[in-house]
Design brief:
The complex is a heterodimer of chains A (262) and B (311). Chain A has 262 residues and is mostly helical. Chain A has 12 helices and no strands. Chain A has one domain. Chain B has 311 residues and is an alpha/beta fold. Chain B is built from 11 helices and 14 strands. In chain B, strands 6-7-8-3-9-10 form a 6-stranded mixed beta sheet, sandwiched between helices. In chain B, strands 2-1-4-5 form a 4-stranded antiparallel beta sheet. In chain B, helix 8 crosses helix 11.
């Protein structure tokens, strides 16, 4: 059972560390520079194509493709997801590895906090940091929405996908951080596992049969794509939430093993 | 008296290496118990098991009636723990860390500030409240470790080497602080500093190679486990003759010269030497200036026990 007070104490402590150290500012700066750059180039490309389309007004195929969701947001969501692969290990690698390396874990786990309170507290703080970064990118759309008509529903679905994908990646990153005392190792393991879950579905394209279909179902990318199209499918929601729970559960089992190890 | 700690058959292996072997002891509520032993004796392992951060390989440890493994949460609610190596988040200030610890320990929001102020004052941390933990000296870090253990006034305090790394004046302060906890709290502390244990503790448990080799009050240990009896005597007379005369007394095993006219006379079998020594000195016409029975110090008891174990 999660204890709310203990959970809040861990969230606050983690946020204090995030905001008190350069991690948040450096990763945030890089993320927003990249996100801003890609948003800008997408909008620029969209405006050029729009201009060309206006000059050849008779072509209906071009007109169908010409909407901000297709031309600006789908490519943006695709690229943000790739940035996530690199960003998440930086957010999560410290969470448990540093506690173990510095020895603070010994004190932390003698406080009357359940393992769930510690794990979900750390996960919650990392998610909050990620949501803050994501909220900055939402401001682009608010400005963009003033000059063009946006499909806010589809945009919301895309952001929901980005939130769920980010949460799934963070849960995996937290698990990687529980495996080692070394932050760099935790980061590399998180990156490798995320990459694996990214490309695992590609075997289907090589004609891997039933196994290929299973692996494709396990791919994060596969489920994320529906959200970027503006489609919220219950299967994708279930997959993301199960993914998050599975890795938080693995993290809990890993933490429990510390009492019996040695 | 209510039992605070109950340890039965406690055994811990690190891989194939036996760290603690079938420990059995009890600590009553309100007692201050010292845990003594050389390095690698199993003190820290036992304290870690009691604090719930390590599970035993066999046996049970109960605190306040709760099992340290299966009822870990209520156990952790009733204890304050100071680990041997005090590691505290370097990126937090002293106040931020204490606030986190208070919340994690379930201190009520209304009482939080008062509780933090209390432990800060008790451990002398006022000067460094706004400082980052990473910038604190070892002594201050130790005191911060102790202050977090005191938060929420837990009935049991487990302190692993509480005065290590402190300067002499700080040591006196911390000892006084622990002494003040007497009665209201049960304290189990491990230490290498034997006078500290004799001063602070009602009872001493001596552990060596994972086994309890003695458990009693410091005074009883000195009396029972000191080798024989010992008398300090000051005589005014010719040194060699005095020494020879003292050696000749029945039951004396050894005479050690201490200073000018001062001798330490030891007997192996616990014989009361004072009447005979006084008679010998007076009969020879020398002046008897001082005659005092001496207890063996805890250091000597400890060394005797540990050496016996080795041999």
């Amino acid at each position: 059972m999660i204890q709310i007070k203990g959970w809040l104490a861990v969230v606050r402590k983690e946020l204090t560390v995030y905001f008190g150290t350069p991690i948040f500012y450096i990763t945030g700066f890089c993320f927003l520079i990249l996100a801003g750059y890609f948003f800008y180039t997408n909008v620029l490309y969209y405006s050029i194509i729009s201009l060309q389309a206006a000059q050849q007004a008779g072509n209906p195929q071009v007109a169908v493709q010409l909407n901000p969701q297709q031309m600006v947001y789908r490519p943006l969501f695709a690229v943000l997801a790739i940035i996530l692969l690199f960003l998440v290990p930086f957010i999560t690698m410290r969470l448990l590895a540093e506690e173990k390396r510095s020895g603070t874990a010994e004190l932390l786990f003698t406080y009357p906090l359940t393992d769930w309170a510690v794990i979900s507290g750390k996960f919650g703080a990392a998610l909050l940091v990620y949501l803050i970064l994501l909220a900055f990118t939402a401001s682009y759309s608010l400005v963009f929405g003033l000059i063009t008509r946006l499909d806010w529903g589809a945009l919301g679905a895309g952001y929901l996908g980005l939130v769920l994908l980010g949460a799934a990646c963070l849960s995996l990153g937290l698990f990687a951080s529980s495996l080692t005392e070394n932050q760099i190792v935790a980061g590399v393991v998180a990156f490798a596992l995320l990459l694996l879950f990214w490309i695992i579905g590609w075997v289907q394209e090589l004609g891997a049969g039933d196994l290929g279909r299973v692996l494709q179902y396990l791919s994060l990318l596969e489920h994320y794509e529906n959200f970027t199209k503006g489609v919220i499918d219950i299967r994708d929601l279930v997959y993301c939430l199960s993914f998050i729970y599975f890795f938080l559960f693995l993290t809990k089992r890993k933490l429990e093993s510390r009492r019996w190890r040695a | 008296m209510e039992t605070m700690i109950e340890v039965r058959d406690l055994t811990k292996y690190y891989g194939p290496q036996l760290a603690v072997s079938r420990l059995e002891f009890q600590v009553a509520a309100g007692e201050i118990v010292g845990f003594l032993g050389p390095n690698g004796a199993g003190k820290t392992t036992t304290l870690k098991i009691l604090a719930g951060s390590l599970a035993p390989s066999a046996g049970t440890a109960r605190i306040n009636g709760y099992d340290c493994v299966s009822d870990s949460l209520p156990v952790r609610r009733s204890l304050g723990y100071l680990p041997e190596q005090v590691a505290i988040y370097p990126d937090l200030t002293v106040t931020q860390f204490l606030r986190f610890a208070a919340r994690a320990k379930g201190v009520e929001a209304k009482a939080e500030k008062g509780e933090i102020d209390r432990v800060v004052a008790a451990c002398g941390l006022e000067e460094v409240r706004g400082k980052m933990v990473g910038a604190l000296s070892k002594g201050y870090r130790q005191r911060l470790g102790l202050s977090q253990a005191l938060l929420n006034q837990p009935p049991l305090l487990i302190l692993d080497e509480p005065t290590i790394g402190l300067d002499p004046s700080q040591i006196v302060g911390i000892r006084q602080l622990i002494k003040n906890l007497e009665g209201a709290h049960t304290v189990m502390l491990s230490s290498h500093i034997l006078p500290e244990v004799s001063q602070l503790c009602h009872r001493v448990i001596i552990i060596n190679r994972g086994l309890i080799v003695a458990s009693d009050t410091p005074e009883n240990l000195s009396r029972q486990l000191g080798r024989g009896s010992r008398v300090f005597i000051t005589v005014s007379g010719p040194v060699d003759q005095v020494e020879a005369a003292l050696k000749a007394v029945d039951g004396v095993s050894r005479v050690l010269r201490q200073g000018e006219g001062e001798y330490l006379v030891e007997a192996d079998n616990g014989v009361e030497l004072r009447p005979q020594l006084a008679r010998v000195v007076v009969e020879r016409g020398w002046q008897l200036l001082e005659l005092q029975a001496q207890e063996f110090s805890l250091e000597e008891v400890f060394l005797n026990l540990v050496t016996e174990e080795k041999s």
